[in-house]
Design goal:
8-stranded antiparallel β-sheet, mainly beta, 40% strand, Jelly Rolls, 3 domains, 4% helix, 3 helices, disordered N terminus
Amino acid sequence: MTIKYLDSKRISALSSDGEGLTFSDDFSTDDWTTSSSSVIGVSGGVLNWSVPNGSVQEQQSYVDMLGSLINTTQWSIRFKLTVSGYVQGSSAQTQQLFFGISNESSSGHTNTQDIIGLKLTLTNTISTIGVQMKNATPSNTGNTSNVSTALSAGTWYVEINRLNLTQSKITLYSDSSYSQWVSTATETYSTNALNDLRYLKCSEYSNNAGTDHTLSGTIDDVSFYNGLTSIVKPTNVQDNSILVEKDTGKRYWFDDAFDLSELKSYWKFNEASGDIVNQAISVGSTDGLGTTASNLQIAGATYDQTGITANNKSLYFDGSDHGQSGTSTSQFNFLHTPNTKWTINFWLKYGGDTTANTILDTNGGGGTARVGLLIDILTDEGLEVWMGRGVPLTTVITTTTSASFVPSDSAFHFYSIRYDHTLASSNVKISIDNGTPVTGNKTSDTPSSADSAFPFNIAENCNGYGAFLDGNLTEMSIWNRVLTDAEVTTIYNSGSGKTLDTAKGATWTYEYALPTISGLKLHLDASDATTITKDSSNLVSAWNDKSGEGNHISQATASKQPLWVGNTQNGLPLIRFDGTDDQLNRSTFVNGAISQGFYMFVVMKPTVGTASNPYNFDGGASARGWCYTDSSDVVRYGSATEQIIDSNLPSTPVMYTFFVNGSSSNVRKNSVSTTSATLGSTSSNGLWLACRHNDTSFGSPDHAEFLFYDNDIGTTNRDAVERYLKKKWGL
């Protein structure tokens, strides 16, 4: 699996096959070849290039890094292109620079190669940039599709995608996160297939002597994605999903840090026509409004308008159009019922109409009977929230911000309105661009849902108070709860227009991966707080099994309960026993008898004692103890003679691996075999941590993790489990 990161947390790209290659650290002079450093050279960790006046053909090639990994029909490459200087000459003849993938490593831009990549063209009238697909057979044919944006001095971020056998696309971006695209073009080339594209190359070519155009710059931060054409964060991923990187065993977990519960509606306003689709459920909410009120039917608004970013769209209301929520408006009654809590977020580019422009309303009835919610914006007053009865809705609450909430620019601004009925004061918060909220206060109960039928409108007041909206709307979300300040900040994303689905992507975290191996019957993990029951003093009464087999261990007597100690080993917690009477146990191990061979893996700091023979863990009466210590580290199983593991006991946690299989038994310490001997043939009757089964010989170990497999998992799987434990616990 290939995973590309943005800012160390967000997963930017995923691929089920292929492998990503990153050249972003630097360009090594050992890997690149050149015939003239004045034309193309490597220095300062970047690739320096120039298309100088009257130059000759020059080239560098990256020969051995891509090789057979190249997918014949799908791949992507990204890089930063800096244009530092450009002088446009008078000659009609052209000069060109190529950067991309070739099927040969020749020292010149020959006509006998297949290429796909960026082609930068200089003429006497314009400098263009595009994607070129060129085939050596037949007759050096090829095509180039140029983006609409002419090249200029500055920094550009370029993405080239091979979409299929006959199509490639180039996109220019203005930002290093490749989110704000400037221009794009797609080239279709069907003459011949282009295969064996394995060399990353940069070359100046098609030069004509005597031309007087000059251009120079650098190339840096190059990343290549094999078998991948869409380099975007995964969307619509279910909470608590786990992605596993097969080659390394690393696991990436979406931990639901951004709570999407009670998200009722989420409209992006990015459609080109028709209904505005409620996407609440698609981004992870389980509380969407359902099919009867899921979409907005828009009358006359202008679709497909510019939004917050280049990839975002908006809907323009010209002062005479509105949206209607659907047939079942009662689903929005939570906005004005007693004891309600809600949040409404949206991005607005205000058109400047001086009347009270309605953004959202649920006004029902007429005259003094009118009840509901009204949100509008007024040039000289700001954003207003009305809720209550009467004309206007002043019985309950009217909160008006200042005129500063109506910016004079023509940009989008983020508004968040939060209401909490249960608060005695400051129960309404209105903020713009994640700034300090203006607060308001309700004085009585809000209208009941039984008072009236509540129509739901976007951009129009249904009872004639106010006016149609003049402006652009995008990214509106309505919640049946009050979002926290941190959640509002996450959605706002420091002004860059983060959408809810990309907000989810920010919560991917790395987790150590336990390999999936059949036969796991017991898994105790001190780092997993969800498996541990403890009181306010961190005394542990139960430690639950993660295997799914239900083999939990516990201690009902408070005086015998061990202590949970946080941030102890590799930043993770441990379970600590006092050596006097602490213990956790279950009388039946893994719900029944076990047979040999089997594997146990234990991470702990063992106890060292003398005559008392303190136990670290015990398997029951007939087992006679699995691990106890006196002056040395000892393991005993069944009636067999005790086997000494190591006479030099560690002062820090250690990993023991026990393979119990008669005379083939083996004990390993931190992945090193220490003992091969007969450990007996008796199966366990139970499990006792930090004591002997008969409530004697107490030890004071720190236990971190315990795994039991009821079969011979093999050496490959054994090694994988050991790598997981050693990496996780810093052994």
